[in-house]
Amino acid sequence: MTDIEIAQGTELTPIAQIAEGLGLTQEDYSPYGRYKAKIDHRLIARSADKPDGKVILVTAISPTPAGEGKTTTSVGLADALHRLGRKVMLCLREPSLGPVFGVKGGAAGGGWAQVVPMEDINLHFTGDLHAIGAANNLLAAMIDNHIYQGNALGIDPRRVTWRRCVDMNDRQLRFLVDGLGGKTNGTPREDGFDITVASEVMAIFCLASDLADLKARLSRIVVGTTYAGEPVTAGQLGAAGAMAALLKDAFDPNLVQTLEHTPAIIHGGPFANIAHGCNSVAATRLSCKLADYVVTEAGFGADLGAEKFLDIKCRAAGIRPSAAVVVATLRALKHHGGCPKEELNTPNPALVRAGLPNLERHIQNMQAFGLPVVVAINAFPTDTAEERAEVEALCAKMGVPCALSEVFAKGGAGGEALATELLRILDAQSCPPELQFTYSDALPLREKIEAVCKKIYRASAVTFSAEATRSLAEFEKMGCGSFPVCIAKTQYSFSDNAKLLAAPEGFTVNVRQLRLSAGAGFVVAICGNIMTMPGLPKRPAAEQIDLDEDGRITGLF
């Protein structure tokens, strides 16, 4: 059976019953149909006296293009904890339509470890991403309208940095010239689109603590500079209030369930290779008030998603995870060991062994943050005991628990071994460990970027383009030097070169551009050839998706 067939064949529990099981009253949530709801984010403040649940961060090794089942493992782990009698909440990001219609697929899990209703979650869900795109593009329209209507702020059209966005992989929109067709149609200038999940509005949405903070952050967005070189903000344009109004309903976290009826909150969805890769602060905080254990994930490998979860999200929100689960697959380890793509399903313990330095480095990085680690071997049908033994030997050498995860095929039952290993760690803790961040707030931006590249990636040097160097000076002058940094780079390597596999050393990271996200409160360093607007593959997944005359969706994984 395909993922969608499994999901469509499962009888769901009405969302009112899921909410009731969490102790929610009818005033605490708003149903979106029978199987989805939005929970009032103000419940976080009303629950301030309740103790927080323990946060479990699920991350992974450097992936292959198809991903390594991090979301599937997260779903199955939550189901396993639920089966073991623990009060648990699964807390995930919302899928983007880019990968859904592209190559990687959706973000609802897979097999017998999924969140449902899967079709809704992977497509429009509750409309949050559309609201974020609308707020982003409202600001873009107001910038150009301000220039057209007399430009009282003196905005330099050549220095407008705010880009439009759309939640779709569309390489044609990366660079363009707009405002053509004469004076009545605007001012001609170079422009471009980012994918919605890489937008600053998405980052703000995910880092804001409440609606007042959301509006304040939107006001601080820097959209460009004046002819005199002074920054211009969304607040000066009078856009923040309307943008916040568009985001009001979206800001409430979304409640759904897994195939095994474990409650799940899915909210916010920045990519980790080109953005900060974590679900919303509101979702995580709310989950901590509603459950004793919160299973959450951060995008792509631990060098990207987990680093940003810890150095950006946890720093900003005061969240302290209790443990990290690092997901590994034998096929990805063989890939890092030099295995050709067409032979990834062929047993080869030697190539697994050759790829183990990638896993080892990710474990070391999580331990450097102060987190205890459990390794999950996400099982595939072609795996062999001899190959798994290579991973188990490495984990034994490092003193790290390791468990086979069979949640794709068995659901929560297939995750009980992993959950048991994790609980041994969590139940022995009196409180979460103190986090050791990669850099201090006091370091200059350049040194923060270098700290991530050298400590996490193991680069020997970092170079900055002339444009990036100018931006460093400009952002420091604007008072943004205390901001954390968000590295945008390939997810396939520790380096900014996708071809450098396993655990490379002695390489140079090339920072070609810096972008200020003043409202989000961080600076984005764009490295190598990474693009903030992806493109579709030669055979996009969209070609396989269809709808029958009864309204039943097929081909969605």
Please provide a written account of the structure:
This protein has 557 residues and is of the alpha/beta class. The chain contains 19 helices and 25 strands. Strands 1, 2, 3, 4, 5, 6, 14, 15, 16, 17, 18 and 19 form a twelve-stranded mixed sheet that branches. Strands 20-22-23-21 form a four-stranded mixed sheet. A three-stranded antiparallel sheet has the order 7-12-13, with helices on one face. A hairpin with a 4-residue loop joins strand 22 (508-517) and strand 23. Helix 7 crosses helix 8. It is globular, with a radius of gyration of 23 Å. The chain starts with a helix and ends with a strand. The model has no long low-confidence stretch (mean pLDDT 96).
Keywords:
19 helices, twelve-stranded mixed sheet, 557 residues, alpha/beta, four-stranded mixed sheet, single chain
Produce the secondary structure layout.
Layout: H1 3-8, H2 15-21, E1 29-31, E2 37-39, H3 43-46, E3 54-60, H4 70-83, E4 88-92, H5 97-100, E5 109-110, E6 113-116, H6 118-122, H7 128-148, E7 155-160, E8 164-166, E9 176-178, E10 189-191, E11 193-195, H8 200-207, H9 211-219, E12 222-226, E13 231-233, H10 240-247, E14 254-258, E15 263-266, H11 281-290, E16 293-297, H12 302-317, E17 323-328, H13 330-336, H14 349-368, E18 373-378, H15 385-398, E19 402-405, H16 407-410, H17 416-426, H18 445-456, E20 461-464, H19 466-477, E21 485-488, E22 508-517, E23 522-527, E24 546-547, E25 553-554
Parallel strand pairs: 3-16, 3-17, 4-15, 4-16, 8-11, 17-18, 18-19, 20-22, 21-23
Antiparallel strand pairs: 1-2, 2-14, 5-6, 6-14, 7-12, 9-10, 12-13, 14-15, 22-23, 24-25
Helix pairs in contact: 4-17, 7-8, 7-10, 9-10, 13-14, 14-15
